[in-house]
Amino acid sequence: MRILVLCCGLLLLRPLWAYYDPGVVVNGEPAPVIKWEELMPQGYEDSLMQLFNNPEIDELDDYSERGMELLEQMMQQLSSAPVVEQMHGRMVSIPGFVVPLEGVGGTVRHFFLVPYYGACIHVPPPPSNQIIDVHFELGTSDENLYDAILVSGRLTTQTYSHEMGTSGYRLEAYSIQPYEFVLP
Fold this sequence. Notes:
By secondary structure, the protein is of the alpha+beta class. It has one domain: CATH 2.40.50.870. It is about 20% helix and about 35% strand. The chain contains four helices and nine strands; from the N terminus they run αββαααβββββββ. Strands 3-4-5-9-6 form a five-stranded mixed beta barrel. The chain has a two-stranded antiparallel ribbon with strand order 1-2. It is globular, with a radius of gyration of 20 Å. It starts with a helix and ends in a 6-residue tail after the last strand.
C-alpha cells in the first residue's frame, strides 16, 4: 500500500503535459509527435531574426526599387532554409494547417503542411524548413482547412517548389486526424 501511495503522490507532482507522448503508431512503427522547431537547425532562428530585424525595411516604400530588392533577398533566403538531415527517413507525427496544392472533388491529396493558419497565402511564406510537402493517397477533405490536423508518416529532406512556396521536407502521409491543442 505504501508503494501505491508513493506512486500516486509522484504522479500528482508532475503536470500532465510533462508526460511522454508516444504519438501515433503507423504500421507497427512509432511516429512520435515532433515540434516545428525540431525542423530547424540549431542557431537558424538567430539568422532568421537578423533577416527580419533590418531597420531599413521599416523606412522603405514596399514598391520602391530597394524595397523590391530586399523582398527578393528575403524570399531567396526563406526558400533555401537549411534542414535537419537527421530527420531524413524518420516516421513522425506533426500538427499543422493545410495549404491545398492539388485535389479533386473536395479531396486534397497533395498539400503543404504549415505551422500556422494563413501561411503561404501571404508574402513572405515561412522558411522552407517550416513547410512540409505532404502526399496523402487517400486524401483529406477540403472543408476543414481552418482546423489543425495531425499528420503522421515518413519524413524526408526533399525540396519542392510551388507558386505557394518552397518546402524543405516531404512527408508520405499514412494517417491524418484532427489535432487538439494542449496548453501547458
